[in-house]
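Q: What would this chain look like folded?
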Amino acid sequence: MRHVFACSTLLFAAACAFARQDTNDPLDAATIRSFVPGTTTAREVVERLGAPTEVVQLGRRSAYRYDATAAKSTVLLLLVVNFGNQDTRSDRLWVFFDERDVLTHYGASFGTHRPQYALPWEDIHEAEDNAARDADRPGVGS
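A: My prediction, written as structure tokens:
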């Protein structure tokens, strides 16, 4: 009887957990691509994207940073050993303005649509997976 109780206790000692955490809304690629260097103003960028995460003064010029982050975590809890993984991906945008607050250039990367639930031994950076997720996100896929 003790063995049955011990074995059933061991079966219930294993567990798994999934978690997701998002910070800010993903950046809209179409909105960003509508910015025109030499024409778009800092005011227009803020009207379209909201308040930046960070503002950096570069002499008389400035740069605004926008970002969003998505993370997916997986944990496998066993009696003796535990396994866990967290996949965090970000959207990031830097917009640069001249002394008149007119856009000079910008740089963006998009990744909040790519995080995956996976355990440590799984490959979460496969090109096919990323391409499939890129194709499902408007303005990012080719």
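The two ends are 62 Å apart (CA to CA).
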